[in-house]
Specification:
With 90 residues, this protein is mainly beta. It has no helices and 8 strands. Strands 2, 5, 6, 7 and 8 form a 5-stranded antiparallel sheet that branches. Strands 1-4-3 form a 3-stranded antiparallel sheet, with no helix packed on it.
């Protein structure tokens, strides 16, 4: 199957680190760090790109060690901890 380039974004102007974790990386909280980029509105946007095969993936962001939802996600599923995982269809 052909992989697709997927860019994840998270707005966190005061964060020192932002990571992406999901079922595509075994929920590893350190393997996918995002980088802070400058935008026309100033600092605070973090971005990272992953290559995923077609399918359905669950994910969340870790900001300075705390789990966060993606405000831009339109779908979420309840996880085993009683919170939600964001969902992306590739």
């Amino acid at each position: 199957m052909k992989t697709k380039r997927i860019t994840f974004k998270f707005h966190a102007p005061d964060a020192k680190s932002v990571h992406l974790a999901g079922n595509f990386n075994g929920w590893d909280t350190r393997s996918h760090p995002l980088r802070q980029v400058k935008t026309s509105n100033g600092n605070g946007m973090w971005k990272g790109t992953v290559y995923l095969e077609p399918g359905v993936y669950e994910y969340r962001f870790i900001v300075d060690g705390v789990w966060h939802d993606d405000a831009g996600s339109v779908e979420g599923w309840t996880n085993e901890f009683g919170s939600f995982n964001c969902v992306i269809w590739v």
